[in-house]
């Protein structure tokens, strides 16, 4: 992965050059829009300095992201659309070679944009073509044509519809499959990553292959009610103690730790004060002792493929357990 250099003073946020594709450098921090993001929430994120916006066809937030960027340009918060890094994702029902380019064109229509900065395969799971149904049914799962789909992703970049292409929720094994035939290697793997799910093996693998890692759920995710437990990150006693000593919030300690791993992140907040707080992590550092304590935190994955794709057992064509193993 590229080095975290100091970036444009306008945003005062560092950026990372991607090793593959023609995208502008990716900002170290991004705004997530998985939860029905209203246009005003995205606009507030742009206003406080977020320049990476993360959306997906599955989230239903592409229109509000596009409207927020257009509004920000009209209001002079952005000189042009080029000032933001926009990521979107191909959903599992669209993971068929002939559907990839049309799906990206639909995403661009939703966003009212000419190109994406980054287009990702959302999950290494393929479902029958059709409307996005949630949760997915196991009988709709079909084998994933990794080579055919990746060739179509490469076509998206060649056509200039996406400046860079990548994947999300891919393990080292899935990445190996793609790298075996890729003409254009994935620029990014977007995965769950935070002090409670540190992904050490995956990070080392991606660093070796020049694939930049982007962390999602950097504060532990949205809703822990289904697990019957509290949020492992925001509820962490280790992080709370470090936060108290540093005079920071737990959220800031988590986000700073991720940044210090050379990983960029996307966080969701619809609260302007918390948005600002989340950006305020670049003028202080964790100590060696803090890092050691964080390295000892017991690991627990929050987003599980099984919970997303099947409530009634494993898919026939995909071993979902392969995606949830701890790759220490
Ligand atoms: N590729 C994938 O499969 C995938 C999966 C999951 C997520 N994502 C992406 O990653 C984004 C972020 O992940 P996420 O939404 O799962 O979880 P997250 O960003 O880790 O956590 C969001 C939660 O933290 C709260 N929060 C934000 N800043 C805070 C702060 N400073 N202090 C305390 N609480 C704070 C938010 O509430 P408020 O809004 O009230 O501040 C929200 O409830 C998503 O929106 C999506 O774009 C991708």
Automatic annotation (TrEMBL):
Domain NADP-dependent oxidoreductase: 40-297
Name assigned to this protein: NADP-dependent oxidoreductase domain-containing protein
Positions of substrate binding: 122
Pfam annotation, one family: Aldo_ket_red
Alphabetical list of Gene3D superfamilies matching this protein: NADP-dependent oxidoreductase domain
SUPFAM superfamilies reported for this sequence: NAD(P)-linked oxidoreductase
UniProt-annotated site: Lowers pKa of active site Tyr, residues: 89
Entry keywords, A to Z: Oxidoreductase
The organism of origin for this protein: Sorghum bicolor (Sorghum)
Superkingdom in the source lineage: Eukaryota
CDD domains in the record: AKR_AKR4A_4B (cd19124)
Any single GO BP term: siderophore biosynthetic process
Family membership: Belongs to the aldo/keto reductase family.
């Amino acid at each position: 992965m590229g080095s975290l250099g100091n970036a444009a003073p306008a945003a005062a946020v560092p950026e990372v050059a991607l090793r593959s594709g023609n995208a502008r450098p990716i900002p170290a921090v991004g705004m997530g829009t998985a939860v029905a993001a209203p246009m005003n929430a995205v606009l507030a994120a742009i206003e406080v300095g977020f320049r990476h916006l993360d959306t997906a066809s599955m989230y239903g937030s592409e229109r509000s992201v596009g409207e927020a960027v257009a509004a920000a340009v009209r209001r002079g918060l952005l000189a042009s659309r080029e000032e933001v890094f926009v990521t979107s994702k191909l959903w599992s029902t669209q993971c068929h070679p002939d559907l990839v380019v049309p799906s990206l064109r639909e995403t661009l229509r939703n966003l009212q944009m000419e190109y994406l900065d980054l287009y990702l395969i959302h999950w290494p799971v393929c479902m029958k073509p059709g409307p996005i149904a949630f949760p997915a049914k196991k009988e709709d799962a079909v084998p994933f044509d990794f080579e055919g789909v990746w060739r179509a992703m490469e076509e998206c970049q060649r056509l200039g519809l996406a400046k860079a292409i990548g994947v999300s929720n891919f393990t080292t094994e899935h990445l190996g499959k793609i790298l075996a035939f890729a003409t254009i290697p994935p620029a990014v793997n977007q995965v769950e990553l935070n002090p409670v799910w540190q992904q050490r093996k995956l990070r080392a693998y991606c660093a070796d292959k020049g694939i930049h890692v982007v962390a999602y759920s950097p504060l532990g995710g949205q809703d822990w009610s289904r697990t019957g437990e509290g949020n492992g990150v925001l509820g962490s006693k280790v992080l709370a103690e470090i936060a108290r000593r540093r005079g920071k919030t737990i959220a800031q300690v988590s986000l700073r730790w991720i940044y210090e791993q050379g990983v960029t992140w996307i966080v969701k907040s619809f609260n302007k004060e918390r948005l600002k707080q989340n950006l305020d992590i670049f003028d202080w550092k964790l100590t060696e002792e803090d890092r050691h304590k964080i390295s000892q935190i017991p690991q627990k994955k929050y987003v599980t493929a099984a919970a997303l794709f099947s409530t009634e057992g494993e898919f026939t064509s995909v071993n979902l357990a392969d995606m949830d193993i701890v790759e220490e």
